[in-house]
From TrEMBL:
Belongs to the ROK (NagC/XylR) family. InterPro entries: ATPase_NBD, ROK. This is ROK family protein. PANTHER family: BIFUNCTIONAL UDP-N-ACETYLGLUCOSAMINE 2-EPIMERASE_N-ACETYLMANNOSAMINE KINASE (PTHR18964:SF149), ROK (REPRESSOR, ORF, KINASE) FAMILY (PTHR18964). It comes from the Bacteria.
């Protein structure tokens, strides 16, 4: 079975693993990200790759290639990390730099959400011609859609679901979805409506579980706003599979049922079969690694 190296680079950690054609992972490596300089991040990337090879007992050239998921804007064709707000890479030539060390390997980079979507595509039961949309709700919000193994890229800025405008009942204003319901927004709503008991997003969910009325109001309103965005996605794309990931959803998977309930009130009768297509990722936060490695297999 062919295998590849999958890498997921974030602002706090770099993760890597050996990825098999069936999406299974072995020889996982995690290291805190050294963001002191562009070169420091790159050297740490090399260290993670070499650590994976050491664990696997082989050289990098024995793999089919290396796939890397990055936050922010990525020029996948030129192999350049254009801009990442949590990494010191500004137009950093990731692929060219790696080719200096691994000239014979196929090396692919892409946005981390695109890689995660591909990881879901590889592991989900997707039939030929079916459209899969992956939605991540975490510190930010984004989406990516795949059909027949190919990303729907548009002119290059597609999938920015978090940038779409919605009405936030909690803010009583129109704003971008990310500003209204991403993790930091949930914490902000908690601080405004509940007060000092809320320091972070998790506190709002903890209070919700305890039956706090203000927390219940926040989560119900946030869920309704997410449902409006998914309603728009269904009306525009009508995906066969809608998979949620990201820390907000994966730590609180019951939110999918709340979104589904809200959609039942907003979708047209002919659209309501889409509700059954909503589900939470089953890849336990590893979809980025799976997708990155699978892109070179």
């Amino acid at each position: 079975m062919k295998k590849a190296i999958g890498i997921d680079i974030g602002g706090t950690k770099i993760a890597g693993a050996v990825v098999s054609a069936d999406g299974s992972l072995t020889h996982l490596v995690h290291q805190p990200t050294d963001t002191s300089s562009a070169q420091a991040v790159f050297e740490q990337l090399l260290a993670v790759i070499e650590s994976i090879c050491e664990q696997a007992g082989c050289s990098a050239n024995e793999f089919a290639g290396i796939g890397i998921g990055l936050p922010g804007k990525v020029d996948r064709d030129a192999g350049i990390a254009v801009f990442q707000n949590n990494l010191p890479w500004d137009n950093f030539p990731v692929v060219a730099k790696l080719k200096e060390h691994y000239p014979e390997l196929n090396i692919v980079i892409d946005n981390d959400v695109a890689m995660s979507a591909y990881g879901e595509y590889v592991t989900a039961e997707v039939e030929l011609g079916e459209l899969l949309s992956y939605v991540t709700i975490s510190t930010g919000i984004a989406a990516a859609s795949i059909v027949d193994g190919q990303h729907m890229l548009g002119a290059g800025f597609s999938g920015e679901l978090g940038m779409t405008r919605v009405y936030s009942a909690l803010d009583q204003a129109y704003m971008r979805l990310e500003e209204a319901v991403a993790g930091p927004a949930i914490a902000r709503h908690g601080q405004q409506l509940i007060g000092r008991d809320v320091q972070e997003t998790k506190d709002v969910f903890d209070l919700y579980a305890q039956g706090n009325a203000e927390a219940e109001h926040i989560i119900e309103s946030v869920t309704q706003t997410i449902a409006y965005a998914i309603d728009n996605m269904i009306s525009l794309l009508d995906p066969h599979h809608i998979i949620f990931g990201g820390s907000v959803m994966e730590k609180n998977p019951w939110l999918v049922a709340m979104v589904a309930e809200a959609l039942d009130d907003t979708l047209l009768p002919a659209q309501k079969d889409a509700i059954s297509r909503l589900r939470i990722s089953q890849n336990k936060g590893q979809h980025g690694l799976i997708g990155a490695g699978s892109r070179v297999l």
